[in-house]
Automatic annotation (TrEMBL):
<dbReference type="GO" id="GO:0010506">
    <property type="term" value="P:regulation of autophagy"/>
</dbReference>
<dbReference type="Pfam" id="PF00069">
    <property type="entry name" value="Pkinase"/>
</dbReference>
<dbReference type="GO" id="GO:0000045">
    <property type="term" value="P:autophagosome assembly"/>
</dbReference>
<dbReference type="GO" id="GO:0005829">
    <property type="term" value="C:cytosol"/>
</dbReference>
<dbReference type="GO" id="GO:0004674">
    <property type="term" value="F:protein serine/threonine kinase activity"/>
</dbReference>
<dbReference type="InterPro" id="IPR045269">
    <property type="entry name" value="Atg1-like"/>
</dbReference>
<dbReference type="GO" id="GO:0042594">
    <property type="term" value="P:response to starvation"/>
</dbReference>
<keyword id="KW-0418">Kinase</keyword>
<protein>
    <recommendedName>
        <fullName>non-specific serine/threonine protein kinase</fullName>
        <ecNumber>2.7.11.1</ecNumber>
    </recommendedName>
</protein>
<dbReference type="GO" id="GO:0000422">
    <property type="term" value="P:autophagy of mitochondrion"/>
</dbReference>
<dbReference type="GO" id="GO:0034045">
    <property type="term" value="C:phagophore assembly site membrane"/>
</dbReference>
<dbReference type="GO" id="GO:0061709">
    <property type="term" value="P:reticulophagy"/>
</dbReference>
<dbReference type="InterPro" id="IPR008271">
    <property type="entry name" value="Ser/Thr_kinase_AS"/>
</dbReference>
<dbReference type="InterPro" id="IPR017441">
    <property type="entry name" value="Protein_kinase_ATP_BS"/>
</dbReference>
<keyword id="KW-0723">Serine/threonine-protein kinase</keyword>
<dbReference type="GO" id="GO:0005776">
    <property type="term" value="C:autophagosome"/>
</dbReference>
<keyword id="KW-0808">Transferase</keyword>
Length: 186
């Protein structure tokens, strides 16, 4: 099978070639991708179908993009850019080659205490940073904790997922967080 036949049926982007699906959710599919011209390396591209978004969810997505662009932290998946066409909104993000924490644990059947402590320290660092910015994650679970593998084969945990950029404010923010977490997990 040729490389071009592997991408048949995938969304088309101006500057990137989508190479394989990394995961699918209700509103989007995340793909591994490479830049067409420049040597930028591998990225992850979240392709969100515009037809599935309501006006309200589109506004929430644009707010999320704005906030995510400002989050620069070693334990948070970086959003580098975004683009759109008539069918999709594309979020171009840092690619984490180690998969997610859920698959990492499943592949080993266990997680040693020293590994758990190592990952929890990194998670705590990311959550402390988010809290300092007044941001609640909204969908924290092992599938949204991604692993970057360094050249020395060291795993770096990075918080990802679709609801990283919620900034509830005002008196009702606790109820807002609770109701959205519950609704998002049903």
């Amino acid at each position: 099978m040729s490389a071009s036949s592997c991408t048949v049926g995938l969304p088309q982007m101006k500057d990137y070639v989508l190479t394989e699906s990394l995961g699918t959710g209700t509103y989007a599919t995340v793909y591994k991708a490479v830049h067409k011209g420049k040597q930028k390396g591998v990225v992850a591209v979240k392709c969100i179908k515009r037809s599935r978004l309501t006006v309200s969810s589109m506004e929430n997505l644009l707010t999320e993009i704005k906030v995510m662009k400002q989050l620069q932290h070693e334990h948070i998946v970086q959003l580098s850019e975004f683009e759109w066409d008539t069918n999709y909104i594309f979020l171009i993000m840092e690619y984490c080659s180690g998969g997610d924490l859920s698959n990492f644990i499943r592949s080993r059947n266990t997680l040693a205490e020293v590994e758990a402590k190592y990952f929890l320290q990194q998670l705590a660092c990311a959550l402390q940073f988010l809290r300092s910015k007044g941001i609640a994650h909204m969908d924290l679970k092992p599938q949204n904790l991604l692993l970057h593998v360094t050249a020395s084969r060291k795993y770096i945990l990075k918080v990802g997922g679709t609801n990283i950029a919620c900034q509830p404010t005002g008196f009702w923010h606790s109820a807002f967080i609770f109701s959205n977490c519950c609704a998002g997990s049903l």
